[in-house]
């Protein structure tokens, strides 16, 4: 299974729409969003996808975002963090790496992948058996190349997509 991993869209509507067109063109209907959509208007853009959203520090209307995500494809949800299994791989997503939740997930030693956002900086590293990926940002403060990743959980391949 392939899924797109994005983060920090920050109400950048036009950029998010372009990213979603690219994701759809790749034949992907599952998105993991590592937080900071910022509003219901951005959440509504994901209606054609199954989306797993981890709330970020700039997701101010959490109730509205959760309701908008419930209107996306079946299974979609928004919460403080996400945990799921894709192709037998245990996956988690949350917004901030510098958090107690991240430390708890790492300390468990259970996860094959942990996806994070917040810094707007792309990164991909391994700690023990866990691959930790920050896909970068789509919107917000410019701290590095804009983009997202597509992960093939069956093969472990990660494709890096730049949007600028």
The total domain count is 1
Low-confidence region ranges: none
CATH topology: Purple Acid Phosphatase, chain A, domain 2
The CATH superfamily label reads Metallo-dependent phosphatases
Structural class, judged by helices and strands?
Answer: alpha/beta
CATH level-two architecture: 4-Layer Sandwich
Strand coverage percent: 25-35%
Strand order of the largest sheet: 4-3-2-1-10-11
Please tell me the overall pLDDT. Answer: 96
Give me some keywords for this one:
alpha/beta, single chain, 164 residues
What can you tell me about this protein's structure?
It is a single chain. The chain has 164 residues and is α/β, with parallel strands linked by helices. It has a single domain, classed as Purple Acid Phosphatase, chain A, domain 2 (4-Layer Sandwich), CATH 3.60.21. Helices cover 21% and strands 31% of the residues. The protein is built from 4 helices and 11 strands; from the N terminus they run E-H-E-H-E-H-E-E-E-H-E-E-E-E-E. The strands form 2 sheets. A 6-stranded mixed β-sheet has the order 4-3-2-1-10-11. A 5-stranded mixed β-sheet has the order 5-6-7-9-8, covered by helices on one side. Strand 6 (89-93), helix 4 (100-108) and strand 7 (113-115) form a beta-alpha-beta unit. The model has no long low-confidence stretch (mean pLDDT 96).
What topology emerges from the helices and strands here?
Elements: E1 2-6, H1 13-25, E2 30-33, H2 40-43, E3 50-54, H3 62-70, E4 77-79, E5 82-86, E6 89-93, H4 100-108, E7 113-115, E8 123-127, E9 130-134, E10 147-152, E11 158-162
Parallel strand pairs: 1-2, 2-3, 3-4, 6-7, 7-9
Antiparallel strand pairs: 1-10, 5-6, 8-9, 10-11
């Amino acid at each position: 299974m392939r899924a797109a991993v994005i983060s920090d869209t920050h109400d950048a509507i036009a950029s998010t729409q372009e990213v979603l067109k690219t994701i759809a063109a790749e034949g992907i209907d599952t998105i993991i969003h590592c937080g900071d959509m910022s509003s219901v208007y951005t959440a509504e853009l994901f209606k054609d996808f199954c989306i797993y959203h981890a709330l970020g520090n700039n997701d101010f209307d959490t109730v509205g975002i959760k309701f908008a995500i419930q209107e996306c494809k079946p299974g979609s949800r928004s919460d403080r963090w996400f945990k799921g299994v894709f192709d037998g791989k245990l996956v988690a997503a949350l917004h901030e790496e510098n958090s107690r939740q991240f430390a708890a997930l790492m300390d468990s030693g259970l996860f094959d992948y942990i996806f994070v956002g917040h810094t707007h900086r792309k990164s991909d590293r391994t700690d023990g058996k866990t691959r930790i990926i920050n896909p970068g940002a789509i919107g917000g403060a410019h701290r590095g190349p804009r983009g997202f990743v597509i992960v093939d959980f069956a093969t472990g391949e990660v494709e890096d997509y730049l949007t600028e």
